[in-house]
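WARN retry 2 of 3 for item q-0093 after timeout on previous attempt; input resubmitted unchanged.
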Amino acid sequence: MRIVKTLISLALLASLPVSAFAWDHEMERGVDLYQAGDADMGVSLVCDPNSVYGTSVSAVLIALDADPDISAVATFRFPDLITIDAPMAHGRISKADNQNGIWEPLVAGLRAHSAVDVSLNGETHTVALGEPLPFSCL
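OK item q-0093 returned
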C-alpha cells in the first residue's frame, strides 16, 4: 500500500510546473525525484537506486499541459541527434517495462544533455534540463 501512495505522490509532484532552467532534486522516502520543465511540459525522473521499493518504481514521468495521465509514444530527441521512441502508460515510462531496451539510453541521454526535444501527440516541446546530473538511476 505504501508503494502505491508513494507512486501517486510522485506522479502528482511530476505534474506540477517546475523550473525551466535546471533539474530540481529532492529525496522522499528513499526515492530520488528529479524534475525539469515548464508549464507546458514537465519531465521527471524517479530513481530507486537501492531498490527500496523494487525495480518497478524507477521511471521517467511526462506531464503535458499539467496532465500526467497520457498514454502515447513520446519521442525524445537529444542534441547529439539520438532519438528514442518510448511508449508511455499513464504518463510513465517504467524501468521495469524497458520495452526494446530504451531505459538505459533514455537515462543516459537525460544524464548527458542540457536540453531535450520531446514530441508527444503531434506537439514538440524543448525541455531545458540545465547542467547534466549524475542521476542515481541505474
